[in-house]
Amino acid sequence: MMNLIARHMSGIAAVLIPPAAARYGAVLAIALTVMAQPAAAQDQPATEQPPESQTEEAATQEAQTDDVQSGEAASTAPDAAAGSPGDATARAFGAFQRGYYLTAMELALPRAQLGDPAAQTLVAELFASGLGVSRSMDDAAFWYQQAAEGGDASAQFKYGVMLIEGRYVAPDRQKAEALMKKAADAGNAFAQFNHAQILVAAKPGTAGVLEALPYFEGAAEQGVSDAQYALAQIYANTAGVTDEKRAQARQYMEKAARAGFDTAQLDYAIWLIDGIGGDKDYEAGFRWMQVAATRGNVVAQNRMAVLHINAIGTLGDPVEAAKWYILSRRAGYDDRSLDDFYQGLTEDEQKRAIEAANQFGKR
Fold first, then answer.
1. How much is the pLDDT for 316?
2. 1 pLDDT band (50/70/90 cuts)?
3. Which of 80, 91, 240, 304 has the greatest number of beta carbons closer than 10 A?
4. Which DSSP state fits 344?
5. What is the DSSP string of 163-195?
């Protein structure tokens, strides 16, 4: 029987070095959605009332009371006074997290104007997202730049992306890559992933991959699914990787798949079915292929047809196989062997397959 999966993997270079025009596409998409504040704050819409009974005015008064108390402490303890402004920045982030965006701006802006990089990053984020203020990417770019120059890793990453994209600031690839490296070395996960890709692009081949490896590992450990996928491919396919790391390849592919990365779901299914990086598991492979196909991955849809035809991980069903074939064909996937299979079905089977494909398309 033919190898179930005509290898979807086309080599590590294809994974890590997309065409120049799209080279930063993944990281730019990430940059536009990643907030500097804790994740819980990202889900708080600007117009939603916070769950607490406390009002915006009360929150402001509370913040002012805290500032007075800090000032009183400062009058008797000069050393403590040096740390009290940081408390204002912390309260600004706290207000942001609770959805009090006006309060966050009122607390953060004075600190930002005095050169506090964390406060500058928060002000930039508020302007970039239009939270509590009118959205202004020019103002966001200004404050991201100030914070980046002040050493804030999140701002270095975001301002670096702006410099790469060149939409709100003049493009400067050299400065952008320098900022990415600083942010990556400071531990920013998305900067680590981006910097790793820069290294691989600058030095194609095994040497570049191995140089970038620590950055891929850092980003993967912090949960960046793109990095987990890349790391799985590197561990599985790169000469010079230790056996201990090679044995972890499937583990990272599974992590990326569970994070919802459909290409990882496809490849994880392939690895399970073909026994790459571990034992074969046809049923688990079928389930993961189904997940990727249902999410719209065209290659997975094509492979689902093959799985049903050959009863791999499933009992097999010609109508279900034809449904997946139709869906992948409509999306432009050309597979002559499946064309022949479809033509060999009865008229009734073809009709039911078309109906099933149409029904799937309405989801």
1. 87
2. very low
3. 304
4. T
5. HHH-SSS---HHHHHHHHHHHHHTT-HHHHHHH
